[in-house]
Amino acid sequence: MHPKSPAPVPLIESYDLYGEAGVGDDPEFVHIEDIRSRSRLYQWRITPHSHRRMFQVVSVDRGGAEVWLDGATQRMEGPAVVCIPGGVVHGFTFETDTEGWVLTVSELQLIDARYRRSRKLLEPLFQAPLILSLEGAPGDAAWLNRTLEQMNVEFHWPRMGRESMFEWLMRMVLMTIRRRVEDQTVRAADTGDRRARFVRFRQLVEDHFREHWPVAAYAEDLAVSQAVLNRLCQGFAGKGAGDVIQDRVMLEAERLLIYTSASAAQIAYELGYQDPAYFSRAFKRRKGMAPGRFRAVRMERPFPG
Question: Does the predicted model carry a pTM greater than 0.85?
Fold first, then answer.
């Protein structure tokens, strides 16, 4: 598959998910749908756009598409998958009646400390967009399709343990793709060292957010200036480095409020705050409500979707 000259695009839109504001900020966000349900509404053409903070897997089981990735068009034929890190401009022109799945995952989940052991294995999927043919690997293609089908069932039919099931199935999807990447050479759109450095920054945040490292400490570890680090974060996350760090702290606070019975003061100390009152004020500034109110609201809707 060789890149062709890009077609001119007058405007690149940036969405949370297909224009649905706010859904990508949920700390446990996962979404899945079949290709047909949305693409046929737009004559099987999804115009170039990007999703900040969200990673997508587009799996084509039958059919094919012209894929637009960061300025270059490539052809894909099913069975195949496309991996699209957050911030990458992408679009599709599918063949009529193409079958497959679109899985969207918050990047915050993918860098979670709970998955530190598998993070390095999966890194190649998050550093640059790629198109991966599954031709010649019918077993992997069938396994991937069945797993995505099961994710779709879980998404539309809530049952006990759905969150855990999503996590397990998602990891199975990603690891299946990662093994295929290891087995064959793929063409990946070249985004240079900037994305790799941003991925490294997110990993450092994951490792040190409880220690409240200042932006200067992260910049020093990455051997860049604070200004360069802020520009990097603006490019890939749409916000400065300080906001990325605070978002991670508040994500952990949300999880502890939702999934534990710990008091706000206990959570403050767990997250490295010396003053629980300061933590409560900081949480309210970023989330629009005090920790106790946030817990009460989320208990009314414990899982998105």
Answer: no
